[in-house]
Amino acid sequence: MLRSPSRFVRSWITAAIVGSALVGCGASAEPAGEETTAAKKTDVNVEPIKAARELTDTNGVEISLKKEPERIVCLFALCDDILTELGIVPTATNSALLAHPDFLGKEKAKEVDVIPGGFIAPEVEAILSHKPDLVIGLKDTHGKLAPALKGATTFWPMQPESWEDSVGYLRDVAALTGRTAEGEKAEKAFRTKLAEAEKNKSDKTALIIYGSDENFGVATPETDVGASLFPKLAEYPWKSRGVEGSYSLEEILARDVDVLFVETMSFGEADGKLSEKLAKNPLWGKIPAVKNGDVHEVDSEVWAKGRGTRSLGIVLDEATAALR
């Protein structure tokens, strides 16, 4: 049995993994209850977005700007995703998402400055050197930067936990940047794609796992934005166990997983795929998805870190193709 030995917060690990241990939001072998994201059909209607200088965002944070922001620094990938949807290029970033071909692509992404210090500890001096009108970060990780940025720029701490949160943040940024038409278009495209996928829900059992080694984690709909889509796409009987959750191949084997999506995550140079490392365990080969060749290594920059409507659209495309 492979178990994760220490504590972990999924919203933090989806952007970076410290060391080789993965811990946190867990999976349950019991089917999820009726109160799931699959219970409510996706509404494809989009409410008009109104431009604003002040608003209370989708999670209750109050944001106020003197003018439309022209120089935006992104400290996590949802920011890059939203700006791309709105036709805006960030002034600087510390995410690799922009290099994806469905975003800016490798060559254009090289023109965007990278904030040194990495995801966990971006350098305040480097951030401020870009004279940003707005800095967007992940609350759990970058909230500690707020005092150092106060007075010099506006810091916006976001905390997405579901696809609905991501849509809400898209609308909020569209309002503050005046890109209301672009925001409505992006939301409409995503909702339409999700509704179409929902109509063709698969009867297969699916699972998303992530990690750098055999101490893997399970993405659950309550705590992971990408996984929050899956109850609409397939059978997804995995529930969060909170920060003390642990995982085992025995549990996955018991659920007869038909299609397995794998997010390999690591610092620095990649040292092999997670699925290849798990293959060393004899239980791995007994999982139906493994036996049938339905294990899909996916791009963690998009699946785990992107979290915005463009990334989630890619997840929908790749997931529905695999679940047919």
TrEMBL record:
Instruction: Indicate the secretion signal residues.
Output: 1-29
Q: Name one Pfam family in it.
A: Peripla_BP_2
Output the superkingdom of the source species.
Answer: Bacteria
Which controlled-vocabulary keywords does the entry list?
Lipoprotein, Signal, Transport
Domain Fe/B12 periplasmic-binding, by residue range, is 71-324
Gene3D superfamilies in the cross-refs = Nitrogenase molybdenum iron protein domain
Q: Which GO terms describe its biological process?
A: iron coordination entity transport
What's the protein name?
Putative ABC transporter substrate-binding lipoprotein YhfQ
Species name? Streptomyces chartreusis NRRL 3882
